[in-house]
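Dear H.,

Thanks for agreeing to be a second pair of eyes. The structure we're designing against is below in token form, covering all 113 positions.
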């Protein structure tokens, strides 16, 4: 049996850890104990980007946000690897990105059709 499995805290204990931290509560929490995603804990903050960023800062893994190509554009939380009590932690969050001048001009053009 791998070290990861023998040192991983239970799902119940991890939920307690999340609640006990003085950080924003995630919108959803998913923990996988078996299958391809075994050992993954996903914390989703939806559009509460700043809440997710606080978690990434807590683990000292916050990176520059990643911008997508949707209209309106959004930026997504990007973070380094998080290992916490034997779990690999994934944080997800996004927020609207400000329109650059070209995007704004394009949308004005479309709106005026």
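And this is the sequence the design step returned. I haven't edited it by hand at all.
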């Amino acid at each position: 049996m791998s070290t990861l499995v023998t040192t991983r805290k239970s799902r119940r204990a991890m939920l307690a850890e999340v609640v006990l931290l003085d950080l924003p509560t995630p919108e959803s929490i998913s923990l996988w104990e078996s299958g391809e995603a075994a050992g993954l804990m996903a914390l989703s903050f939806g559009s509460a980007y700043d809440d997710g960023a606080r978690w990434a800062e807590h683990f000292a893994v916050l990176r520059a946000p990643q911008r997508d190509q949707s209209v309106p554009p959004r930026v997504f939380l990007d973070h380094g690897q998080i290992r916490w009590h034997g779990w690999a932690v994934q944080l997800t969050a996004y927020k609207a990105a400000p329109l650059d001048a070209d995007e704004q001009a394009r949308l004005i053009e479309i709106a005026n059709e």
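Two observations from my side: The longest strand covers residues 87-92. Residues 101-111 form the longest helix (11 residues).

Warmly,
E.
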